[in-house]
Amino acid sequence: MAPSSNFSDLCVSKLSLQMFRKTTGIVLSLIGAIAWGMPSVNALDIGVSPPRFEVEINNKKNRSQSINIVNLSTEAVEMRAYVRSWTIDQNNEMQLVASSEQSLDQWIVFTPSRFRIPGRSSQTLRFAIRPRVQPTSGEHRAVLYIEEVPRNNAKSLGVTTVGRFGVIIYGYAGEVKRVGTLNSINVQTTPDKVKAVFDISSTGNAHVRIKGQYAIWRAANYPGAKATRPILNISGSSLKLPANVITAGELALNPVLAKTRRQLILSIPKKLPPGNYVLDLNGELSGVAIDKGIPFTVPAAATNPRPVTTSTR
Questions:
Q1: CB atoms within 10 A of CB 163
Q2: 3, part of any domain
């Protein structure tokens, strides 16, 4: 299967490496976060593309893939690569886990493992999936980290910050079942913030994602969920909102892994003045349409927050 382009998973972090005179210990400080839903990523003068792969393990022709790494700066940079197994914890953050014989990271071979990229140049990293055992049906996951190598001339008491990118790799074997259930949507409001909490269960053997759009309407002018349609060019620079739509955007939420239940938060970046509104949703989860309008109220600054809850079953 070709690299995914509509939605992507890319772990971007910075590692703070503090070197001490009388010890070889390294203090690692993870101060980045997983960014889901970005078609391409540029950070720390390094670009990595694509940020996510979905590969049919049983299709030998597509087991081999390549990653393009671009050095956007004028100085050369040295990089190293390695693979790990991962999951998503209760806080919706990536957590590295121990490997097993069914772990995708055990089956990935890649080259080169260490390389130097001159300024304004690029490097291709190739990897292939070669199972050592018969893969169980469903989804297998790995992250291929591409990390800057600290320069040897760093001062002994100095602090050097290096970048690390994690290209997410999903491998699929046998019959893949994506079964997602939207248990409820809870719209929580304060004078300064509006967020929607999606409670989602994934009961199949592969992750599920909500796809689609949201729009905030003035309640007095809302035509009803069945009357609204997806907005064209929702992520483009020439976006034109329909009349009475205050703001809109994509439902770019984290995946929910198989056999888990998670609460995903959609934060509305635009500050809304006090009043009555409707959160309109046009999307889908595992092929099931999500076509809803959820009323909510933004309170005045002097009042207490008023959460509005709507359950979906």
A1: 19
A2: no
The CATH number for 271's domain is 2.60.40
Enclosing domain of residue 307: 180-311
Residues 228, 126 share a domain: no
Q: Is 271 part of any domain?
A: yes
Model confidence pLDDT, tens digit, residues 107-163: 999 999 999 999 999 999 999 999 999 999 999 999 999 999 987 755 545 666 678
Element at 109 (helix H, strand E): strand 108-111
CB 200 within 8 A of CB 184: no
Q: How far is CA 10 from the centre of its chain?
A: 6
Closest by Cα among 275, 161, 133 to 218: 275
Would residue 134 count as lying in a domain? yes
Q: Tell me the helices (H) and strands (E) count for the chain, helix number first.
A: 0, 21
50: preceding bond cis by omega (within 30 degrees): yes
pTM of the model: 0.82
Q: Is residue 245 part of a domain?
A: yes
CA dist list (Å): 249 to 8, 17, 177, 202, 281:
17, 37, 28, 24, 10
The least confident of 44-48, 150-154, 212-216, 217-221 is 150-154
The answer to whether 214 and 248 have CB atoms below 8 angstroms apart is: yes
Rounded to an integer, what distance in angstroms lies between the CA atom of residue 143 and that of residue 138?
A: 17
End-to-end CA distance of the chain: 33
> What's 117's domain CATH number?
2.60.40.10
Closest among 213, 183, 185, 192 to 308, alpha carbons compared: 185
pLDDT tens digits, one per residue of 59-110: 988 899 999 999 999 999 999 999 999 999 999 999 999 999 999 999 999 9
- Asked if residue 74 and residue 187 are part of one domain, the reply reads no
Q: Tokens at residue 125, please?
A: 């990293």
Residue 108 sits in the same domain as residue 221: no
